Amino acid sequence: MNTTIIMVSFKSEILIEKNIERYNSNVKILVIENSFDNNLKSRLENKYENVEVILNKNHGFGQAANLGAKLAKTKYIFFCSPDNFAEKDCVKKLEDLSK
C-alpha cells in the first residue's frame, strides 16, 4: 500500500478501534492523539501492528493533521476522523484510481 491513514483524535478511544478495524491490516494508520493518553497509545500499538500513535498537545485539528502529513512516509495520505467510517477497501479503491 502507498497510503497512510491519518486519524486525528481527542479522547475518542471507543470510536478509534471500531474505525481501525474497517481497514486492511496492511494499511499504515497514524493516530495523532491530542489528549496525551499514554494508555490509549500502548493499547492500540500493542493490539494493531499497522498502527502508530503520536501523542500531541492539543493545538487543534489543523496542527495535528499537518503533523501527521509530515510524519507519513507514503506517496498518499488519507485523513479520517475517528467518527468517519470509510467503506471496506476504500484505500485500495483510491489507489487504483491513481494508476
In words, what does this structure look like?
This protein is an alpha/beta fold. 37% of the residues lie in helices and 22% in strands. It is built from four helices and four strands. The chain has helices at residues 13-20, 38-47, 61-71, 90-97; strands at 3-9, 28-33, 51-55, 76-79. A four-stranded parallel β-sheet has the order 3-2-1-4, with helices on both faces. The longest helix has 11 residues, at 61-71. The radius of gyration is 13 Å and the shape is globular. The model has no long low-confidence stretch (mean pLDDT 91).
Relative strand content: 15-25%
> How many distinct beta strands?
4
- The oligomeric state is single chain
Count of alpha/pi helices: 4
Uncertain stretches: none
The largest sheet has its strands arranged as 3-2-1-4
Supply Rg: 13 Å
| Biggest beta-sheet profile | 4 strands, parallel
Order of helices and strands: EHEHEHEH
Rounded mean pLDDT is 91
**Given the C-alpha coordinates, what overall shape results?**
globular
Share of helix, binned? 25-40%
| Strand-pairing-aware structural class | alpha/beta
Determine the N-to-C terminus distance: 13 Å
What keywords describe this structure?
single chain; 99 residues; alpha/beta; four-stranded parallel β-sheet; 4 strands
Write the layout of secondary structure elements.
Elements (H helix, E strand, L loop, with lengths): L2 E7 L3 H8 L7 E6 L4 H10 L3 E5 L5 H11 L4 E4 L10 H8 L2
Parallel strand pairs: 1-2, 1-4, 2-3
